Amino acid sequence: MIIDKLIEKIKTTENPTVVGLDPRLSYVPKHIQQQCFDEFGKTPKAVAEAFFMFNKELIDATFDLIPAVKPQVAMYEMLGADGIDSYIRTIKYAKEKDLVIIGDVKRGDIASTAEAYSDGHIGRIDVEGNKFEIYHEDFITLNPYLGWDSIEPYMANCKAYEKGMFVLVKTSNPNSGQLQDLDVGGKTLYQHVGALTNEWGKDLMGKYGYSSVGAVVGATHPEQAKKLREIMPNTFFLVPGYGAQGGKAEDLAVCFDKDGLGAIVNSSRGIIAAHQKEQYKAKYSEMEFALAARHAVLNMKADLRRCI
Fold first, then answer.
1. pTM score above 0.90
2. What pLDDT digit, counting tens, does each position of 133-165 carry?
3. What is 2-307's CATH number, 3.40.50.300, 3.20.20.70, 3.90.190.20, 3.10.690.10?
4. Which residues are catalytic?
């Protein structure tokens, strides 16, 4: 089970941190930008190549400290075909470093459309009997708003290829409560979704007592996370919202079990743009952005371990 590999990587690194590879051009150091502009002009292709070069150095500097990376596909999709190529190359490079890949794609559809997403992202594409793996992700994020019909098309590929998913249950954005906190028969909507997610995962249980069907549970909502941990004892949490969005290590301690497992915590710009933060600018030049990211990972690891 892929969830077992993720847990084993967390145990080996003693670090439940996933680095969000969500590049923006403003994060990319000027020397990388200029190199790509000189070769490709000021074009989407140049930006896509700059993203890959940026990601590659970040991975080189942090892969021994972390269990996983989480590239956000939207940052690459906006650049068209060149951006998707950068996304795929980033994932392949990260997998060469034995990192677990969480593709943050947030798909949510049914029937043949969901099957196409599933085959492309975690399954195989069949071309006249020849099968191809396209994106090479280990997990993907899914929106369950359409119910079981939007989850079931992924289950066969999860079983066949040892893949997994993280279902959006309680997200970290400020207005998530407009829908997720609605009272539905005496329970909130997110509690209902949490119970369903826990049930959906029963066919994909790993040896550590967690399922390859996980849940996205925001670090900015500790009280809700505590309730969800009770509802979802066998569900691994992907926790966004730490750092830049205001989530603190103390807030997300409730996501973990008594053994310090059960969750992986995302940080994106807090790590990949660390070289732009005052606490690192004094020590690292822009050319040393990857060293600043490594320092940020070590600081996050220490902060998380302090609370779990």
1. yes
2. 999 999 999 999 999 999 999 999 999 999 999
3. 3.20.20.70
4. 106
